[in-house]
């Protein structure tokens, strides 16, 4: 059941992402959260124990991203121009939590990803907190939507548009 | 006529001619100095000495070697590399030049032989430059993800490297790149998976990813602690590390879960970058991540600082610890109770407390639902309302004070253990010798290990009975693992237990040496905790039990039963465990199996303990006292 929801959500993400193809063509990194490492699945403990037999296995972890497969990485580096999308997709829950609080490591790193200068990070954080409902408009909001809204808001702000090179 | 032709040599050809003569003189020098015998060369090519005294590289793959037998012949590989560096650029711009494929080797040879750049055309390596710029490493850290018993692969923890980018401070590390060595396991069959993982059937390789992905995966999704060990490497050593990583992209290694695993391979990598370090164990039987951390602690000053990143669960509990009981109730209600009621109750609190309660509720919700984006719509709506409310409060968060840090993993007792014990049973006495390859049981000193966890592999107990004069195997456990998670209003994980191996069914009344059987046992149930004295954990598990052996009528038994116990901390250095179990067997030998034990352990030092043990199996009772040494 959970797997179906997960796949549905990913599909939804990809489809929703496509709707905003103008700004971020091939939107989304197709980051697939592999729920098999989630201890709350219905898979028995025994299966989890046995099937996880090889450590350090990237594919066994929750993110099935490795060079090339996600479309956002290449030769072990994040592709130029895909850093923002990959960052918000990968850290979406942490960002929704920290941007609401107006502080946090992930939120500060978002400022960096958006090209904001170090001195303007506090301004970025209160700016985002004040516009939280806009950035996260509903329970179905997607990471790419959030990113594009944020970019739009920064671009139209006189101070931040200067300190953040989008 | 022939003289005129001489003037028509192209500059490239003239260069090539000059190169040619330069190459041969360099070759001569390399020969004379026997450069292929140098430690740096062996490290860069990952050569290890074989039993017969020759060399074999741990790396595989045609792309890593330039000579045909390069994996066994350091001299041939050096000559081939040297020649290749003088190759003209490939016609196809997509094919990288050997100088660009093996920049660490190139740099080393260049320094050793003092290449003259005017005589050798240095190639431009745009891809390599892009790599170097993206990393711009100014230091490296070894990162340890803590023990995770839910997955066989992660039972011993995991290590990977992080390359800390220049110009960033602590707290800005998320965007750095981390380097991970792991196996490419292309098998979904769990048995094949285990067999191939143990026997080198998988190939491992290095890959790099942004550190934030690792934090999300380990800290959040798997809720594991991360320990960061910053390494003190020189500028030159870091450069070499980055270049060597580039070389390793095409290399493949045989992956062995027990010894040549994720953590082991990071040691030769660091040594190749910094040959002054002696890190790689020469013939390891097994190496676990905590062992590699201990190895790194050996060279003085190599680890310059340690940073702890608590798991999501740890930070959730830290934050909850700041709430009053009433506030905790509101937070629980926000996350899973009546949201409207909770929001009303929240309004009665002062602003900063509201923020704290909302954050705690969000932590709890994230813990319950998990960090993956899938979640029922009702939950996502609830979460959004909590976060929108938090965003409306323009107040800073109340930060939990960093608690006295948990004991870091390398400070825990060492991995293997031997013990000598003296015991008595009925009219006879015995001596027992035990050896355990890894790792930890509930009476071992708990510091540095996951609380309430047990992981034992390769545990052999041999006894000598004085009355009968017999020496026999009492136990040979392949694996015994257990996880006790006391129930908590916010953490409702079941406790579980799994074991398989040889054991003695003394409850059947026969002498121990006639009672050996092969058993398998698995079970689960709840655990609870109290703090009546210091820390007590109670557990009750329902288990299935199977055994095969000549000691049983019909040679087997299959049944189920219960196991209950109490684990308590007496003082900081001593603990006790009481346990009883009862099994009935509808299939095979029906005789019931009743066992009870009381164990007491006393920590003399980190790697030395004493134990007292009283045990009963059916009619047989025994008492023993022993010394336990970890190494």
Explain what the structure shows.
The complex is a heterodimer of chains A (166) and B (631). With 166 residues, chain A is an all-alpha fold. Chain A has helices spanning 2-19, 45-51, 83-90, 92-101, 105-113, 121-130, 132-135, 143-155, 160-163; strands at residues 73-74, 77-78. In chain A, strand 1 (73-74) and strand 2 (77-78) form a beta hairpin. With 631 residues, chain B is α+β, with helices and mostly antiparallel strands. Chain B is 30% helix and 33% strand. Chain B has a twelve-stranded antiparallel β-barrel. In chain B, a hairpin with a 4-residue loop joins strand 17 and strand 18 (535-548). In chain B, helix 10 (235-248) crosses helix 11, helix 13 runs antiparallel to helix 16 and helix 16 (351-369) packs antiparallel against helix 17. Chain B is globular, with a radius of gyration of 31 Å.
Offer a concise description of the structure.
With 166 residues, chain A is an all-alpha fold.
What structural category arises from helix and sheet content of chain B? alpha+beta
- Whole-angstrom Rg of chain A: 17 Å
Q: Which assembly state applies to the chains in this document?
A: heterodimer
Distance between the termini of chain B: 82 Å
Shape of chain A: globular
Counting DSSP E segments of at least 2 residues, the number of strands of chain A comes to 2
Number of strands of chain B: 23
- Major protein interface: A-B, 69 and 79 residues
> Compute the gyration radius of chain B: what is it?
31 Å
SS-derived structural category of chain A: mainly alpha
What is the helix/strand order of chain A?
Answer: HHEEHHHHHHH
Kindly state the percentage of residues in helix of chain B.
Answer: 25-40%
Low-confidence stretches of chain B: 1-9
Number of discrete helical segments of chain A: 9
